[in-house]
Amino acid sequence: MFDDLIREIRRLEHGQKLSVSLPEDDDGYLDRQCSDEKCKADFKVLAQDWDQKVSDNRAYCPLCRHEAPSDEWATVAQVEYAKAVAMAHLKRRIHGALVSGARSFNNRQRPGFITLSLSVKPDTTPVFLPKAVGEAMRQRFSCEICSCRYSSIGATYFCPACGHNSVLSTFTQTVDTVRNTINAVPAIRQAMGEDRDGAENTIRLLLEQSMGRLVGAFEHYTEELFATVQTAPHAKVRRGSFQRLDEASTLWREAVGKGYGDILSAQEMMNFIRLTQQRHLLTHCNGIVDADYLKKSGDAAYAVGQRITIREVDVLLLADLVERTGKTLKAAVS
């Protein structure tokens, strides 16, 4: 009765190769994840470009520039999906053998007082629904070197196909995307309906992440732009120089005759320092105010032990400050 099943199992013992097509989003982009355990950044690449522009031997993480073969960038969800598809294929093979065996068994039955009949219930194939979150925050890029098209919600500095450093060409787009995120806040509140606590918590996280995106983009942009100035005092650049506003401003003043304080007013410079210090606090102290923050920021609105609150107006102000400073420096270099 189980001869067909036994034969099928023996065939499977020799191993089976199964090709699994990963689902794309509505715009044809494929979810990818950095294979470096220290990074694990999520991003997307147009599926067509992943097939045609990314080599089998090497792809790059847009955030950390980790290099790995093209088959090492699957997301956790995609790995689980592939496992589910493989299991469904296995079940169909076993199911087919059971059906065949049951049919043979039933055909051998003759009418009588007792009649036995076997039946096998059909299995279902897993359905993969691609994740679609944070579209207001998503940035889309096209590499200026190889034209590979990719997108990211978080920071992005390198092309996944060729590894080109794209920070100089994507800085303004990052600022625009942050503004779009802030403009979407009312829609987020409305979409979450009566879950006011959930809505406010989501918005708080978006605002804090937006601060990080702006400061990170500005730091990388100014560092890469500075590297293009042949007459700049490159020997004075230290690790993390462009993370410190006062040190970076001094370097720029020596390079092009303009520091941050020459571009922004005194009040704007105070706000710039306060907001960048708040981002540092969020990154390293979970937003809890310490004595170092009070000393460096000059912010009298908080006391040690309190947690800072990021408002929409703060993010928009920081966006204006980094954009204007970045554009002025770019003009000075050109």
Give your account of this protein's structure.
The chain has 2 domains: 1-131 and 139-165, no CATH class; 167-333. It is built from 11 helices and 6 strands. Helix 1 packs antiparallel against helix 3, helix 4 runs antiparallel to helix 6 (196-227) and helix 4 packs antiparallel against helix 11 (312-333). The strands form 2 sheets. The protein has a 4-stranded antiparallel beta sheet. It is α+β, with helices and mostly antiparallel strands and 334 residues long.
Give the helix/strand layout.
Elements: H1 3-12, E1 29-33, E2 42-46, H2 47-52, E3 59-60, E4 67-68, H3 76-107, E5 139-142, E6 149-152, H4 167-183, H5 185-191, H6 196-227, H7 245-256, H8 260-263, H9 266-285, H10 291-297, H11 312-333
Antiparallel strand pairs: 1-2, 2-6, 3-4, 5-6
Strand order of the largest sheet: 1-2-6-5
* Rg: 28 Å
Helical fraction: 40-55%
Tell me how many strands there are: 6
3D shape: globular
Percent range for β-strand residues: 5-15%
Helix count equals: 11
N-to-C series of helices and strands: HEEHEEHEEHHHHHHHH
Low-confidence stretches: 112-133
Largest sheet: 4 strands, antiparallel
Distance between the termini: 82 Å
Mean pLDDT: 83
State the secondary-structure class. Answer: alpha+beta
Q: Please tell me the total number of domains.
A: 2
